[in-house]
Amino acid sequence: MVHYKLTYFDARGLAETARQLFVLADVEFEDNRLTVEEFQKLKPSLPAGQVPILTVDGFEISQSATIWRYLARKFGYAGKTPEEEATADSIVDHFKDFLNSFKHYGAGLFFGKTQEELDRARKEIVEPAVQVYFSILKNQLEKTKTGYLVGSELTYADVAVAENLTTLKNTAFFHPEEEKSIASFHQKVLETPKLKEYLEKRKFSTL
C-alpha cells in the first residue's frame, strides 16, 4: 500500500484541497500538522523551505497546486478529457493568481499583523482582486451551466475554489447573498456526500 504523508500547518490553507481529495478518493494518508515553531526547525530541510509537502513512499512533491494536480490525476478528479484537464488547470492558475493578493491579508491574519495593516491590505489589495476573481468564476459558471466550473462532474478545481470561498466567507470577502451563482456553486460542492460528512466533523478554522 502506498504511504502518503501531507505536511502543513494545523490550518486549512494550502493543504486542505489535498486533504479533501484524499477524502473523496477514500485513500488514507498521514496528516502531519506543524506548529510554527516546528516549521521553523524543519524549514532548512524542505524543498524551497515551504509547505505543503506531499511525500509518496519517500518521494517528495512540493508546491500546493502541483500536489493537487498529482492527486487529482491519480484519483480521477482532473477532468474527463484533455480539454477539461486544461480548463481545470487554468481555473486553478487563476485561483493561485488571486492568492498572491489574498496572502497579504491571510498570512497577516495567521502571523498576527496589526488590525491597521490588515485593514489596509483588505481595502487596497484584496477587495479589488476579489472583483476580478469573482468575474472569472461567474463567467466560467455561465459557460458550463452545470453548477460546476469544469464539465458536468466534480474536479479538483471545484474543490480548490470552493475551499477558498469558505475562507473568503469567513473573512467577509464573500457575501453569498450578493453573489448568487457563486453561492450556489459553493453550496453544491459542499453538499458532495463524502465532503459533507468530512466537513461536518472538521474543526472550525478561519483560514
TrEMBL record:
<keyword id="KW-0808">Transferase</keyword>
<dbReference type="InterPro" id="IPR050213">
    <property type="entry name" value="GST_superfamily"/>
</dbReference>
<dbReference type="Pfam" id="PF02798">
    <property type="entry name" value="GST_N"/>
</dbReference>
<dbReference type="InterPro" id="IPR004046">
    <property type="entry name" value="GST_C"/>
</dbReference>
<dbReference type="GO" id="GO:0004364">
    <property type="term" value="F:glutathione transferase activity"/>
</dbReference>
<dbReference type="InterPro" id="IPR040079">
    <property type="entry name" value="Glutathione_S-Trfase"/>
</dbReference>
<dbReference type="GO" id="GO:0005737">
    <property type="term" value="C:cytoplasm"/>
</dbReference>
<dbReference type="InterPro" id="IPR036282">
    <property type="entry name" value="Glutathione-S-Trfase_C_sf"/>
</dbReference>
<feature type="domain" description="GST N-terminal">
    <location>
        <begin position="2"/>
        <end position="79"/>
    </location>
</feature>
<dbReference type="InterPro" id="IPR004045">
    <property type="entry name" value="Glutathione_S-Trfase_N"/>
</dbReference>
<dbReference type="InterPro" id="IPR036249">
    <property type="entry name" value="Thioredoxin-like_sf"/>
</dbReference>
<comment type="similarity">
    <text>Belongs to the GST superfamily. Sigma family.</text>
</comment>
<dbReference type="InterPro" id="IPR010987">
    <property type="entry name" value="Glutathione-S-Trfase_C-like"/>
</dbReference>
<protein>
    <recommendedName>
        <fullName>glutathione transferase</fullName>
        <ecNumber>2.5.1.18</ecNumber>
    </recommendedName>
</protein>
<dbReference type="Pfam" id="PF14497">
    <property type="entry name" value="GST_C_3"/>
</dbReference>
<feature type="domain" description="GST C-terminal">
    <location>
        <begin position="81"/>
        <end position="207"/>
    </location>
</feature>
<dbReference type="GO" id="GO:0006749">
    <property type="term" value="P:glutathione metabolic process"/>
</dbReference>
